[in-house]
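In keeping with the milestone schedule agreed at the kick-off meeting, the structural modelling team has produced records for the first pair of proteins. Each record is given below as a sequence line and a structure-token line. The laboratory manager (R.T.) confirmed that both were archived under the project's standard naming scheme.
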Amino acid sequence: MAKSRLFMVAVMLLLATVGVSACGGSQDGGDKPEYPTPAAGSAFFTQDYDMPQTQDAEQLGEWLASEHFEYDLDGWFFFGSLVDDTAPGDPGSFIISMQRIEEVQGGSRLAMVPVIVAYGSSSLGHYVYGGEYALDVSPQVNVESDPWKVEVNAQGQADPLMTMGLVSGSMGEAGAEYLVTADIPDQLGGRLQAEVLMRDRLGVVNQGYGTASFFPQFITAAQREEITGPYGNSVGDYPEATGDPMAAQGSYYYSQPLMDVERFTITRNGAPLSSGTSGTMWMDQIVQTYDEQAYEVLVEGNASWEFYSIMLPQADAAIMVIQITSANGTLPVATLFRDDSDRTRNSAREAVHAWNIDEIDVEAVGGTVWTSTQTGQQYAQQHRISLGSDDWTADLTVTMVRGNQEIVAGSTIKYEGLATVEGTLSGQAVKGTAIVELQPVGHL
């Protein structure tokens, strides 16, 4: 598989590869319906404490630092802004990820590892990115959990293609430091090198529901009817009330959504591109299995999605907004985390607030379109996000820092890049940054 295609596979699967399971049942009265026991290796909603990551902080840390071979996909994804000390007005966008994907090749089931590194800035005018595909066996791929360290190597190269690791503190806890590095061939025939040290401000948060942070990314027609009816448009209330496991309809989804960059260097072919001592990063850790039906609906069925990872350092807060649209309708999700969030039994932070489906409004601002000269695709450069409930409101304007943040790999097209954020959160002025991902219909 070509390097450019590998890059897109890794980013695409972050949101698009989700699964389906049994339909929900009405809870207007009577006994709860019986649901099939979730198959091994499928993420599902539960309110029990049976899984290791639900027990305590130590076991959650082990879960976050490990590969999960029972599932079809797991990985670590870092993305955010790097602010050059000499050019603070030209922040760079940075992405680095490693994931394991189960694939069938030649009749055998293999664990493959796409590695992705990308950097872009206004001074460059475009992205420089590299992608490699490795078989998940040593010495190509080495993962250690205590302390966490990931290393991906290439034959004939002395230094690793990329590393990720915990350098101080405890995995998933506030105050821990993480270091990522890269030395990888890029799409222009050169080599992209990176080193970023960051400190986690909030610690790990539950993006999903239940004890295992199950995050549904697909709902059936019957489930939608229940969610928008008896359960008042609350995606979280539905499985809590019904016990529907929603097996293979999403992922075990944990984030570390507010990480302060302490130092970084970006070079290409040994020549400096950027360096500094500030910026804000976000990390996702995702574990999931998806099935053929979901792939047909959400990937082959020309689904589109919008993803806004909003980092508000001055408010010690972060908001994730996702809107996935397919033939089954639109599923918006928005969650708020702050430094005073409650913690669960395993010490992960719970959401301060999760907005209901009908409380989330994401709109492109008219007259802000950027048109790609390469593909002809058009992307709004501003989006207005309005979140309203009796407890929490947000009115945010998300503005891309530059036009050309499109990534093209063959027939696959994606717009993913850095934005500034300004507005209010429950009446208080806030500002920050976001990584925005926009997937055009029909170009996965």
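The second protein of the pair:
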Amino acid sequence: MIDPITEYILNEGYILSDKTVSVDLNKFESGEAKKLIIIGLCGSGKTTLGEHLKKKYKVQNFISDKPWPETKAALLNSKRSIIESAGFIWMAQDLKWKKIAFSNPMILIGMSAIKAGLRADRRDGTIPGVAKDKKEIYYFIRSNFKNFQGMYNKLRKEILSRKDADVQPFKIPPAVAVRGI
């Protein structure tokens, strides 16, 4: 039998990844919805997936981790767009922007805080996989644990509990999944 703390850690995706899912993706694919939002932890592959989907769906407007004014403007304009940002996790704290953002189709990337943190460190803080400073590799893992994982899990549960949502498993394309750890 697993103790309650270990069970919580495993169930919340801190160590093991949840599955990646799409929510109402059919509405973006059909053209009914003009925005596709990608949400995930720092280092989970949002930008890489967004670049892949930009080509697949022939979308010109791809917003990747832009400052909030640009991200908010992209949500409000009428251009067909793919928008990704770890900041959507924070945006959910503001009910106005939450309602706007979450009325759009989404892809929720399922990746553990540890794996995403290692990938973010490889991307931003290392020279061929070796940390410049021993503490750098832990920065991203701690950041994902402390700042994002709990909020992301809460947000994910809320989105997936919507009765009208068309939730489907989403397979990360092999060309995208190969990058990183």
